[in-house]
Amino acid sequence: MNFLFLTGLGEDFTLHYNSQPIIIWETEGDGYWLKQLAFWRTKGYYASRCGFVFPGLTGMSVLDYAKFDRLLELFADIDVKVIPLLQNNDASFNGYSMSQDLWDNWITFTQHYKSDHRIAAISLFSEPTPNTMPAGKTDLEQTQYFADLTRAIHQIDPERVVIFPIGQYCYGSAQEWIADLQQVGIVDEPNVVFDIVHPYFFENSWDMGLTPEQKAVWYGNTWIQPFINAFGAKRCWSGETFAWRGTVIDGSHEADPVLQSRWLTAIINEFVKREIGFDIWALIGNGDAYRFQTPIMAASNYQPSGEPPPPPPDHEPPVPPTPSTIPIIAAACIGIAMIWWLTK
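Request: output the structure for the sequence above.
Response:
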């Protein structure tokens, strides 16, 4: 199986680093971030998902083709591919998800990087919601828009893998969204993977009184298996999850790191057992750099017949820079992901 690697730097991702030049990847902490990618590449992790926004939007790194070209060069040097993700995380995305500007920008991007094998896939939009749709539009119309955009991209670059945006935040159930996907005819489009669910464990009412292990199974039965039944595991992708580390949830509750570590192991095992691709949004941060290294590496070696084996003892990740050297690292996060559809 192939693995993907997701990396983010707090509120800013890889194209800019707090408005600093792309060379920050080479110089920050003596190349610490590239060394992180190279270390996980030795474990079989395959690519880096890199968030950005198009010009005119805010809240994330603005796409700059010169910087992105340099990023592709740096990652190619360590044999890591890139997945560019349009990251919805700001009010500037209100009403944007069906816009001509979004369409035109993705078409330009596709033309610019046609047949560029340094790019593993493109992720069209992170977490569309009712707020990202123009007023008066419906969920079906938004699904139709992204289906049409996917086809337009494939007219330019037929082999480009497209990650179709998640419908979880617009539809009340997996079955409702599957019905619309089937209606717009996108489920049989080649080189399309569907972002189907972003599962979390918060220790609050959202968890329905379930343990981490029980909630992972609930997600598997409720939001994963219906899509597997509809169009197969290799076309299913979970675009985001992670273990909250000492994080205040809903302004009132601090996550228990022991429970969150159990959650991370349980949900990864659920993904692997059902053979779907997935992202892990965060692996380090807030000073507890490798708290979740063991469950992640153990779960990534999942054995259906028994307990996951421990991670190999002979490979240690690079030591993170000290806060005195790089204050922003306290807000940094690194994650990993797995995907099956890239094994062609």
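The chain has one domain: 3-338.
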